[in-house]
Structures are given as C-alpha cells and as structure tokens.
Specification:
Elements: H1 4-12, H2 16-38, H3 41-57, H4 68-100, H5 119-132, H6 136-147, H7 152-159, H8 163-180, H9 183-187
Length: about 190
C-alpha cells in the first residue's frame, strides 16, 4: 500500500489513478460511517458519493495536518449533518403543504414496518432509534468512538473540537442512550439490586 501522504500529493497534482486509489482505500470506511449516521443503506450510498465528490473538489485544501482518514471522517460527518438538515427542512415544508391542503394528500404516519423475528434485530432497531434521538454532535462522537474505534484525540481532530468537549459529549450521549434503553435492564433482570 502506498503512503497516504504520497497518494494525496499525487491526487492533488491531478493524478486520477491516485484519486481512484484513495476512493478504493477509504470507500468502505466512509460508507459504514454514513450508514451508522443515517441508518439507511440508500442514504449511506448517496452520502458516500457526496463525500468523494467533495474530496475531489477539496483536494487543494488538504494541508496534511491530519491523517487522510480524519479528513474524510470530518467531510463525511459534515455531509451527513447537511443532509439531515435538508431532510428536516423538506419534512417541515411537506407538513406545512399537507396542513394547508395544497396537495390533497393524506398523511399515513401510522404505517408499520414488518416485525423481525430475531431478538438481535429488534435490539438493533431500538439502538438505532435511540441514536437518532441524540443531537448531531452526540451521535457523531458516539459513532466515531464506538462504531469506528477512533481515539478521543482523533475525534477531536475530526470534529475540530477539544478532547474535553469530545469526552463531555460522549458522556452525555452514553447517559442519554442508557436512559433510552433502560427497559433492557428490567427485561433482562439487570436492574439495580
């Protein structure tokens, strides 16, 4: 494997094969981060494409202060947050349109998803719901730490915050998740004694 600094330098010089190698080397990492952040394979595909498009457009801005993976994490987190913000705006506009009767559509928010047979899938669904209830920063920190095994320092670099902020945010995220998933303690007899 070629040194990532050399690869980035070649890509910045316009070497398309170097850029393709960067994409190949990091596409799984970016996809899995996007999947953890969005909870949707379709959205994760879209985010991944957006990330590498931004990377290509931003090659000149890469200063080499951080690892390429940290830079890509930062871009992926920003794309996910931008996408989340746009979706929220679109949902508000759709709700306003429906309330004003412009489209003559009825809302069926009670559509149910098929119930899965396995306990692990059900638990994962509860975790995903709990993760969606975190603030964007809390979710980013939690996902980077527990799903991607980044160190506190790497997360701080990725999100352009201090290590103390990362620790505090992670603490609050875990606290909220424990509260959201506390019924598992009761279900499995794990409550306080």
């Amino acid at each position: 494997m070629i040194d990532e600094a050399v690869l980035m330098q070649r890509a910045r010089s316009g070497d398309m094969s170097a850029f393709r190698e960067i994409v190949e080397q990091y596409k799984r990492m970016v996809y899995h981060l996007a999947l953890d952040m969005t909870g949707s394979p379709h959205d994760a595909d879209d985010v991944s494409q957006d990330v590498f498009l931004r990377v290509y457009r931003s090659l000149e801005s890469f200063r080499g202060d951080a690892k390429v993976s940290s830079w890509l994490y930062r871009i992926a987190i920003n794309v996910c947050l931008d996408r989340r913000s746009k979706k929220a705006t679109m949902m508000m506009e759709l709700r306003e349109d429906m309330e004003s009767g412009e489209h003559g559509m009825t809302s069926d928010n009670n559509a149910t998803h098929p119930v899965t047979a396995t306990e692990s899938r059900m638990i994962q669904q509860h975790i995903d719901i709990a993760l969606r209830r975190l603030t964007p920063r809390e979710r980013s920190v939690f996902v980077l730490r527990h799903y991607n095994d980044l160190s506190m320092k790497e997360i701080a670099t990725t999100l352009s915050v201090t290590v103390g902020t990362v620790k505090s945010t992670l603490f609050h995220a875990i606290e909220k998740l424990q509260k959201e998933l506390s019924f598992y303690k009761k279900d499995f007899g794990l409550g306080e004694r």
